[in-house]
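Human: We require from you a standard protein entry with sequence in single-letter code and fold as tokens, and nothing else.

Assistant:
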Amino acid sequence: MAAFVCGFSLIHSFITALVNSLIVVVISPRYCHMVSFVWCFGYLVFFRTTHYFGLPKVPAHSNAVQLLLTLKMVGLAFEIHDTAENKKRSPSEQDKTKELVAKYQNINPSFVDMMLYAYCYIGLLTGPYFKYRTYYDMLHQKQSSNIPTVESTINRLKSLPLFGISYMVLSHYMTVEYAATDEFYEHSFLYRLFYMVPMFVILRMRLYSAWVLSECVCMTAGLGAYPVASSPRCGQGPKDLQALEDVEKLDPSSVEYDFETIHNIDANGCEFTPTVREGMRFWNMTVQYWLATYIYRRVPVKALRTFLTMSVSAFWHGIYPGYYLSFLTVPPILLAEGVMADGFRKDATPRGQKIFDWVSWIFKMRAFEYMCMGFLLLSLEDTVRYWRSIYFIGHLIIVMFLVIGVSKKRKSNSQKGKEKES
């Protein structure tokens, strides 16, 4: 399938997977994950600049294959590393948890297994990201006949018509290309300001549609199906390993399964949660899991975690300046949200908290729309030109919220201090 989609440019993903598999085999598990990260993300630089070396510029679908394969190969190396770390703490008869981890989480793939995992047709172009262990469990699933693949797929497809029709209608009348023309900037300030609203709707509907369909592909294959009793988590798989073992003793026909492990998009969560931080958790969830597990939690300096995670995310998406301008706007937004919540929501009445959440939701959607334009316009010139035409209103609001939030928090702390003294 990859050869049919990519043609000659398949060579890039093949080299990435081949060398990464050799890294995992040859280099000590203690360091292989770091070498894998440097190799895979380093190759992304060359992959995206091939035209500077006289090679053909890679097509968009080959880029999609390369992106997902990069996550899988680096994730595989981290799984190998974590398995080796688990084995250092050899399980004893009294340590049931370590035995369960060895049984249900550790991996030991061969070189061929790694290459087959790299080019598994599921999620090859659109995701979702899934661990090698999830892939292994699918291949060795003994109760596949009891997994409700058809019912789960039909249920997941129910939201697709809304997403698909909304995308086709809106994208027919409005395009992001128009926002890069001189004619666009002849319109009024309000027109330019609110143009980002339908742009973000179009982006959401397009990605919602693609991710729902990709989840359905996983469901039809049985990928990511685990017993509900084991509390599967997106990207991670079963959390309750003891329950997973207990299920094996039950009548197979009585076991209930879900596909939460490959659940990649929660439209309700994206649309209706009140903050940017919460909304991000429901967007491209398996990639969020990858970033949280292999980047955010591994950064030793806590103050740098969000910045470095957003930087890796921006670099993974591409080398266009618009990506960096958008993703690196996230940390100050999260900081502003935090200080505003501490200053106004923390000590508010239940009614006051509801009002705060509604106002926060309004600004959350505007923040996503504002950042969306950098993600769509891509170039530094077009992104800055658009943001300048609306007076960098998104950044101004961030600064305003930071000042107001910090001031309110200091005032509240001062009042509490006086109350204690009295």
The two ends are 74 Å apart (CA to CA).
